[in-house]
Design goal:
L-arginine/glycine Amidinotransferase, Chain A; 3 domains; five-stranded mixed β-sheet; four-stranded mixed β-sheet; globular; Arginine deiminase; arginine deiminase activity
Length: about 850
């Protein structure tokens, strides 16, 4: 097929001798005539410096019996569509032959497992692994006390070992790939036991060899996969690397999640790691802390507005075609894109080896251009046809599976890249293409197999002689190196904010449409689309935004309201030497979990003074003046399964244990119930001791250092803690009592030149006290009634531009629509601009205004 002069249809065809078949002796489905090429480990560096370097060794896994099992129910196997397995096998074989024709050594998982097993030590490794993959269980109707000694022997590990010992290598491989469980009961005749059910937990996604590990400039690092049905793949690949004698540098621990499709090496100076749907920052942080990446800088590409399965990994939306060209989905590019990606850049200190945040929240396509990349844009249809998921094998060659994308690349790059087309349309029905299906564990750097380390003073961005652009010369604002500057005078409104995207704000709910996973996904994406618009408006008004996300394991569904658990105060506001961070004692465990290490370390670290009130959660009316470093040293730690260790500030919550058929549920249920009871008791004890003060129950006049605090109702603050807060910050405290069982911030809002007040929320005298203070401080007071307050008309946010010369008022459309024309005119007279944002889906799912979605950084 010659549809463009520099796009090459691979001349590889399947020969008649290639034979994929089912062997009727043991039911195995595998390729019978793979050639085995030994790897001379001393000749290769098992690392990747740059995605554009020449691919030397590639690991694949051909579709086989496990994928046939997956094709029986594609949706449940994480496949995109039903598929013809025979066609998928043919396409995959063609891909392998193309790689070999281009000079790559290709090893499949089956090759690795079946080769060298004449070595007894390797045979033992294989047997031991297969032993763990095969299970015998009693059928549900069979009681254990009805079994005789011989019956029990036939269910024992010793009997299973004897079966494993008798198996051929090919049988062992099928056990490993399909992971069978056999349920048995007593037989009435013939044999002691009768198999009543054969079930399997096949590695249906092992064909996608990209994800179980990443190969960095330092070497191979094992990943941690998001889907539970894929997690056993990591252990299998560790076995494969052991059989190949390839070193593994490390492994991502829980709750870290990392999949190889989210990683691109781009020279010794830079690598890209996507975080979002499948990978998280916990994993990236682990890689940086343990120096497993080998690059001067790490670009963390944040997908916090999209989280779409179609764009699950970084390699589904972009690809490095050569040293200076990035293929990228056009729809994710630009500040106006609702599904844009943002980059946080971390730079390694050459003396300490520590990575620290150097720039944050740079729009991805802008960041790429600043770093010397020319962009070639793929359309939405190109992306859906896996055009972005090609494979760069170096030497100016790029394997593509979508002809339309290939034409786009060819027209943009003329003859600088040789495009090799392979038909992969059936394999892609399993939700991935040639990049997903391959793991390059060794690339040849230019001129030599093993590249010498480069001087830190001359770290190239791309790979070779091109130098990094000077970060100081980058475009103004969020693109510039991260540098914090304190306010010179006290101000009421912030021009910097910290935000947590509502990535898991919407969750399944019994008795509603949200019981359906598809509805949850669609609703979540609509909420994120609204949130992306809020973020876009803030950026357009000159507000610097530092964006984080939250994840299910953190158990913080309301994390989007980040302004609940901290406040910040400039040195000018407090008349102090240092800018100050205040950490509040919170009323629930869920809110306390929102005080996360990565937010404090990477979003609030420039506050050199910390007032820590969290001891009040244990009934100690104490304020501790401390530092960020001390806070990070004492913050509770997450356990391996994402649960807090006992002995921390928070009650331990243990994961539920699946019930084993052999145990009838009694033992495990008892353990789970006992643990739940202990957790509930710990929670109740903590709640009885807790003395809390949450920031939404304080309303500040920062310029005059006056704070209003609510002491009544369900949202009441503890008076002693409020007094302690005021003393610690040298604020005048005005104590009031809200009558409506709402937080104070739902009744009063104080802006730069105006205030919004619902007098009906207070007794007459208290309402007048608040009103008089607002008038005397020069504010224009807009009064709202109780009905308007219930519709969140006081839940506003006012922000300033970079130099505090202009203010913008942000409201939801729902809030604005409940104000009168006169009230709107009064607001318009006191701010430079009012922006109303449609956040109806967010509000329908529990969102209440904008106020505490922004954590002001003063």
């Amino acid at each position: 097929m010659n549809f463009n002069s520099n796009i090459h249809q691979s001349p590889v065809h399947l020969s008649n001798s290639v034979n994929y078949s089912i062997n009727h002796n043991n039911g195995q489905l595998y390729h019978l005539d793979q050639k085995d090429t030994e790897i001379n480990n001393s000749s290769y560096s098992f690392s990747q410096i740059h995605e554009n370097d020449e691919a030397a060794i590639v690991i694949l896994n051909e579709p086989s019996l496990a994928q046939w099992m997956g094709s029986i129910h594609p949706n449940g196997s994480l496949y995109e569509e039903p598929l013809d397995l025979s066609k998928a096998q043919d396409e995959h074989q063609q891909f392998r032959r193309l790689l070999e024709k281009e000079g790559c050594i290709v090893k499949t998982v089956r090759d690795i497992l079946t080769s060298g097993t004449g070595d007894i030590a390797k045979r033992v490794l294989l047997e031991d692994f297969a032993f763990k993959c095969m299970k015998y269980e009693l059928a549900a109707e069979q009681r254990l006390d009805e079994l005789g000694l011989k019956d029990k022997e036939l269910l024992s590990d010793e009997y299973k070992k004897s079966c494993i010992d008798s198996m051929s290598v090919e049988q062992l491989v099928e056990v490993i790939l399909t992971r069978p469980t056999i349920k048995l009961r007593k037989s009435e005749r013939d044999t002691e036991l009768l198999a009543t059910e054969y079930s399997f937990h096949p590695l249906v996604n092992l064909v996608f060899q990209r994800d179980q590990q990443i190969t960095t400039a330092k070497g191979i690092v094992m990943a941690s996969l998001s889907s539970p049905i894929r997690s056993p793949e990591v252990e299998l690949m560790k076995l494969c690397f052991k059989l190949l004698d390839l070193p593994v540098l490390g492994e991502i621990p829980a709750p870290g999640k990392l999949e190889g499709g989210d990683f691109y090496p781009s020279g010794r100076g830079l690598c890209f790691i996507g975080v979002g749907l499948r990978s998280n920052f916990h994993a990236v942080d682990y890689l940086m802390r343990n120096d497993l990446l080998g690059t001067t800088r790490v670009a963390v590409v944040k997908d916090y507005f999209d989280l779409n399965q179609q764009r699950m990994h970084l390699d589904t939306v972009c690809n490095i075609i050569n040293e200076r060209v990035m293929l990228i989905l056009e729809d994710i590019c630009g500040e106006q894109s609702p599904i844009r990606r943002l980059v946080d850049e971390y730079t390694r200190d050459p003396h300490t080896g520590v990575y620290t945040l150097s720039r944050h929240d740079i729009e991805y396509s802008r960041y790429l251009r600043e770093n010397g990349y020319e962009l070639v844009f793929a359309t939405d249809q190109n992306q859906k046809d896996y055009g972005c998921n090609g494979l760069n094998i170096g030497k100016g060659k790029f394997i593509v599976v979508d002809q339309a994308t290939a034409k786009t690349i060819a027209r943009a790059l003329k003859s600088t890249v040789k495009l090799l087309y392979v038909d992969f349309r059936t394999v892609t029905k399993m939700y991935g293409s040639v990049h997903c299906c391959s793991q390059v564990v060794s690339r040849r750097t230019p001129q030599t197999f093993i590249s010498p380390p480069l001087s830190v003073a001359h770290t190239p961005n791309l790979h070779g002689t091109q130098q990094l652009p000077n970060p100081e010369a980058a475009v103004h604002h969020v693109s510039q190196p991260y540098k914090y500057t304190s306010n010179i005078v006290p101000v009421q409104t912030a021009n910097r904010v910290l935000m947590v995207a509502p990535t898991y704000f919407v969750n399944a709910k019994i008795g509603s449409d949200l019981i359906n996973a598809s509805v949850v996904r669609e609703t979540r994406q609509r909420v994120l689309e609204e949130y992306a618009l809020l973020h876009q408006h803030l950026r357009s008004q000159g507000v610097e935004v530092h964006l984080f996300c939250h994840e299910p394991y953190q158990k913080t569904p309301s994390a989007v309201f980040v302004g609940q658990w901290f406040s910040t105060h400039s040195a000018a506001e407090l008349g102090a030497k240092h800018d100050t961070l205040v950490l509040y004692p919170l009323s629930t465990i869920e809110k306390q979990r929102q005080r996360r290490r990565e937010i404090i370390e990477h979003g609030l670290s420039h506050y050199t003074r910390v007032i820590d009130l969290t001891a009040c959660e244990q009934g100690q009316i104490t304020a501790r003046e401390t530092t960020i470093a001390d806070i990070l040293a004492t913050i509770p730690t997450l356990g391996e399964n994402g649960y807090y260790y006992s002995g921390s500030t928070y009650p331990e919550i243990a994961p539920s244990t699946p019930t084993s058929p052999q145990q009838g549920g009694n033992s495990n249920n008892h353990t789970t119930n006992a643990t739940s009871a202990a957790a509930a008791a710990a929670t109740a004890t903590a709640n009885s001791l807790s003395k809390h003060l949450e920031f939404p129950n304080l309303v500040l006049d920062r310029v005059n250092k006056v704070a209003f605090v609510n002491l009544s109702g369900e949202k009441a603050s503890n008076e002693s803690v409020a007094d302690l807060w005021a003393m610690s910050l040298d604020y005048k405290l005005v104590k009031v009592n809200v009558k409506t069982n709402t937080s104070l911030s739902q009744s009063v809002f104080i802006g730069h030149k105006f205030a919004v007040l619902c007098k009906e929320a207070f007794d007459v005298d208290e309402a007048q006290t608040i009103y008089d203070h607002l008038i005397n401080s020069g504010k224009r007071v807009i009064l709202v009634n109780a009905s308007q307050m219930s519709k969140h008309c006081t839940m506003l946010s006012e922000v300033s531009n970079t130099d505090h010369t202009k203010t913008t008022l942000l409201m939801t459309e729902g809030s604005l629509s409940n104000l009168s024309d006169t009230q709107i005119e009064e607001l318009e007279s006191t701010v430079d601009k009012i922006i109303n944002i449609n956040m109806s889906v967010f509000e329908e799912n529990g969102g209440k205004g904008i106020t505490y979605m922004l954590g002001g950084l003063f």
